[in-house]
Amino acid sequence: MVFMKKYDERDNMFARMNLTPGTPEYREYYNEHPELKESDDALRAMAPLGGAGSATFHSVHTPLVGSAFQFLSEMKHLSEGAPASEKTPLPSPDEMTKLLKGLAGFYGAKLTGIAPMNPRHFYSHRGREAESYGNEVDCDHPYGIVFAVEMDKEMIFHAPDVPEALAAVKGYVDTAVIGMMISYYIRSLGYQARNHMDGNYLLIAPLVAEDAGLGEIGRHGLLITKEYGPRVRLGVVTTDLPLVADNKESFGIPEFCRLCKRCAQSCPGKAIPSGEQTLIDGEPRWRISDTACYQRWRMLGTDCGICVASCPFSIGLDQESVRKMGDSPEVMRQLLRDFNQKHPLRPVNRDPVKWFTSHPKD
Fold it and tell me: Residues in domain 4Fe-4S ferredoxin-type (predicted)?
């Protein structure tokens, strides 16, 4: 098996946006990456996400999103902890796997899988927080419990407005809570467990989810599940508790995305390529422009979400045809033809959210 080169979290757009001009970290990063400095500085000069001056700003609604992210920021230090001093005698790995999947589902996960962890899943270095900036990632947990929560379809179809952003951050909150409950439980049994949540990941969740059989990564760089498409948020708990790993599953997403191209066509920032995959660190992927994507986020004041809303799997596909399409190109082509005849390029929900106030935008 060929392993991808580890990704450095310092190269992540959010890590770069956290750099403060004039600091040693800022100078060091842009000395090594001078090609990014001008565009990153231009992004930093724009109105912040959720800030006044962006297209979707609403003085009452926008803080619904920001307050949720503040909550996530203030709870993320709970992601790690020491296990109990003595290990509890446990049933078989099969039984513990069943129990943990059931626990994740009880707390709201729609899909759960177990991945055998390997180096390609983890960042090489931390980059999001000043206190850990540049630290090497050292996590050797052999298993990853990965779970997906569904984002509300009608809220996502409001993209790129505040309801979409609220649905997205609720997904982060839900996965953070599920991860906390699983990791606290495992540690109480005397085993190591770490919750990887928004703002405090040591790994790339879609890669773990793909290897756990939850879905495949599509043209837009997001995990596509059979049931919900990319309309999910992911959480991961890594652990040394013995579990039974699931198998990676292929159901035809690379070929489907080659034919579909809806996300590329609807992307307002033209950040998603419409051409073929390229090799990225030895694996075929579509290369997304993080600068073009994030620039649109800053202009809008939300995380956009149009690519999620435009994906046929988010809107809904016949599951029997989805199960067959990986083995039959004609089933796949017919599925896409039927979908294109029924649906416009992307759904737009213009109905007001019933519980939102009618207070003016600003």
Answer: 247-277
Enumerate residues 6+ apart whose C-beta is below 8 A from 256.
218, 325, 332, 336
**40 within domain boundaries:** no
pLDDT class for 4, splitting at 50, 70, 90? Answer: low
* Residue 8 to residue 204: CA distance in whole angstroms: 10
Give the whole-angstrom CA distance, residue 217 versus residue 112: 16
Q: Are 166 and 263 in contact (CB under 8 A)?
A: no
**Residue 222 is encoded by which pair of tokens?**
């997001």
Over the stretch 252-295, which tens digit does the pLDDT of each residue have?
A: 999 999 999 999 999 999 999 999 999 877 789 999 999 999 99
**Location of structure tokens 């991945």:** 115
Report angle CA 133, 230, 293 to the nearest 5 degrees.
55
CA dist 172 and 199 (Å) reads: 10
Domain total of the chain: 2
Closest CA relative to residue 76, chosen from 183, 148, 162? 183
- Domain residue limits at 306: 253-342
Q: In this predicted model, what pLDDT tens digit does every residue of 52-65 receive, in sequence order?
A: 989 999 999 999 99
Residue 51 placed within a domain: no
Dist CA 6 CA 120 (whole Å) = 5
| Residue with tokens 């599925």, as numbered in its chain | 335
Buried b (16+ CB within 10 A) or exposed e, 316-353: ebeeebbebbbeeeebbeebbeebeeeeeebbebeeee
Q: Is residue 187 part of a domain?
A: yes
Q: Which helix (H) or strand (E) holds 257?
A: helix 253-260
